[in-house]
Design brief:
Elements lengths: L4 H19 L3 E7 L10 E7 L2 H19 L5 E3 L6 E5 L3 E7 H7 L1 H4 L4 E3 L1 H48 L6 H15 L1
Parallel strand pairs: 2-5
Antiparallel strand pairs: 1-2, 1-6, 3-4, 4-5
């Protein structure tokens, strides 16, 4: 089943957020694709670790600023920014969790979401590229099919017009025959 347009947009946002985490040296960044049956709240969890409170805040800030700058998207809510041990950015379709390493080990979100499919940012990126390439191929083949479907109709109209013209009008004489008639007229005058 092909992912919906909004699902692909969400994947692009998650990919950009993961890149922001990587740029700010987030460690062990993982994307959990949540099972739709198990989770009616969100499609993805993006989980990353920081080595200290300041880095956790810097990662969260970078995610928030990048998504706002590139896509005009703001989080629905932000939790834990003051403490910095676990910062949560809720974008409704996905949630970003920035943990201190020891807090991440304690809460172990990956274990709590057993039905989720864990992906590295590189694996996630490859899947997104493959999905977008498939969508592009589909759109191109559809456009080609529409073009081919419209092309034979024009050829059929031209073919239908030619026999009708031949039936109603006399065939013009070949040019050689016309010249021979003209040359006979000239020779008869002399």
């Amino acid at each position: 089943m092909a992912p919906s347009h909004t699902h692909q947009q969400t994947r692009i946002l998650v990919q950009s957020a993961a890149a922001a985490c990587e740029d700010k040296k987030g460690e062990d960044t993982r994307i959990l694709e949540l099972d739709p049956v198990d989770s009616g709240l969100s499609d993805f969890f993006l989980v990353t670790s920081a080595t200290n409170d300041r880095q956790a805040v810097a990662i969260a800030d970078e995610v928030e600023h990048r998504l706002k700058r590139e896509f005009g998207v703001m989080p629905n809510s932000v939790e834990g920014r003051r403490q910095g041990g676990w910062i949560l950015l809720d974008y409704v379709d996905f949630v970003v969790h920035v943990f201190l390493a020891e807090r991440r080990a304690f809460y172990d979100i990956e274990r709590l979401r057993k039905s989720a499919r864990p992906l590295s940012p590189a694996e996630f990126d490859e899947e997104l590229k493959a999905a977008l390439a498939a969508k592009t191929r589909s759109a191109r083949s559809k456009a080609a099919a529409e073009h081919e479907a419209s092309t034979p109709r024009k050829a059929t109209k031209k073919a239908a017009a030619k026999p009708a013209a031949k039936k109603g009008a006399a065939k013009p004489a070949p040019k050689k025959a016309a010249k021979s008639v003209v040359s006979k007229k000239k020779s008869s005058r002399t």
